[in-house]
Design brief:
This protein is an alpha/beta fold. Helix content is 28%, strand content 25%.
């Protein structure tokens, strides 16, 4: 399973959730099957004038992520992700490694 995180830095599992989903500085994708980071990239949609959140949502779907973790989600991107059966988890200012522990433990 792949989990998509909208994060504020490229510090790997120590990266914290960015306070802006569509305008997050970086994206981290973690593969739970391999127990490793699948990718870490700068947000290519960071400077979009409009619709950045939806573009990020489509990016999540293209990357075949089943879970998305971010601070909050706008109604349009939430609709896009839910239509693709992507689960949304709201987390603020937490490191990726702490969120992964909670997801793996089922809390």
């Amino acid at each position: 399973m792949k989990i998509f995180f909208a994060v504020e830095s490229d510090a790997g599992l120590d990266s914290k959730i960015d306070n802006r989903f569509g305008r997050a500085a970086y994206f981290l994708i973690y593969d739970t099957g391999k127990e490793e980071i699948d990718s870490m990239e700068k947000n290519p949609f960071l400077n979009q004038a409009h619709g950045g959140g939806i573009q990020v949502g489509n990016h999540v779907i293209q990357r075949k992520c089943q879970i998305v973790v971010g601070p909050k989600f706008g109604p349009k991107v939430e609709e896009v992700l839910k239509a693709a059966n992507v689960d949304l988890i709201i987390a603020e200012n937490s490191p990726v490694k702490e969120i992964l522990k909670k997801i793996k433990s089922g809390s």
